[in-house]
Amino acid sequence: MSLGVLVDTSAHQKKVFEFQREVVDAIADGLSGGATESFVVRYGNEVEILQDWSPLDAGLGKVSTRIDVESGKNQRTLLYEALNIALQKLETATSANSKILIVVGEGNNTGGAIKYSQVAKRAKAAHVQCFALLVADHNLMGGRVRHFGFYLYDLASATKGRAYDVGNSRKNLDKAIRDVVKRVS
Fold first, then answer.
1. pTM
2. What per-residue confidence (pLDDT) applies to 116?
3. What CA–CA distance (Å, rounded) separates 90 from 103?
4. Is the alpha carbon torsion for 75, 121, 48, 148 positive or negative?
5. HSE-up of 29 (CA within 13 Å, CB side)?
6. CA distance 26 to 30
C-alpha cells in the first residue's frame, strides 16, 4: 500500500495543532502493518513535501514532530494544490496494490488555481482511495455537509473512501482510524 497524508498547517488550525500531530501518529500506528511506503505534505499559504517516499515507520511515524503551524494571518489555504501534488505522487506509485490518501484538516480551500473538479478527476483516474479526518476546534455539525469540507466528503465518497468529523475528540479519532484500517485492509 502507498499512503499519502496531507496536513493543514494554516494559522486557523493553531488551537487544534497538537491534536493534528496526534492524528498523524494515530494514522502511522493504525496503518503500520499495511502501508509499505508513505509521504507527508503540509499545506496552508504554501504547499511543501515534509517527508518524501519512505517506509511508514521511518517516515510518517517520525514526521509529526516536524509539522508546524504557520504563523501570521492566513491569506490562502491551498488544499486543492496539495491534493493535486499528492495525487501526482500517488500516480507514480506503480508497485502498490492500493493507493490511499488521507487529509487531516478543516477542509477549507481559499486561493489557488486548482479547481475541485480537476482533483476529483485525477483521484478517480489514478484509483486513489481518499479519506478525510476533519479536525477543528468548533462543532462540525455531526455528519451533515458543512461549508468547509463539503468537497472532501464528495471526494471520499467518489473514491470509495470516507470523511470523518473528528473535531478535536480522541474518541472520534480512534473510531475513524479503526474504520479506515478496516476499509483499506
1. 0.91
2. 94
3. 14
4. positive
5. 12
6. 6
Domain range spanning residue 85? 2-184
> How distant is the alpha carbon of residue 32 from its chain centre?
17
Backbone phi and psi for residue 177, each to the nearest 5 degrees, phi listed first: -65, -45
Note whether 149 and 164 are within 8 A (CB).
Answer: no
Side chain identity at residue 7, one-letter code = V
Other beta carbons within 10 Å of 160? 12
Q: Quick check: helix, strand or coil at residue 165?
A: strand
Residue 139 burial (CB count, 10 A): 9
Strand partners, 181: none
Write the CATH number for 169: 3.40.50.410
What pLDDT, on the 0 to 100 scale, is given for residue 145? 40
pLDDT of residue 68: 72
Quick one: pLDDT at residue 139? 56
Q: Per the structure, how many domains does the chain have?
A: 1
Per-10-residue mean pLDDT of the chain, 185 residues long, equals 92 87 90 81 92 74 70 80 96 82 92 93 95 80 56 94 93 96 90
Which pLDDT belongs to residue 35?
64
Cα Dmax for the chain: 41
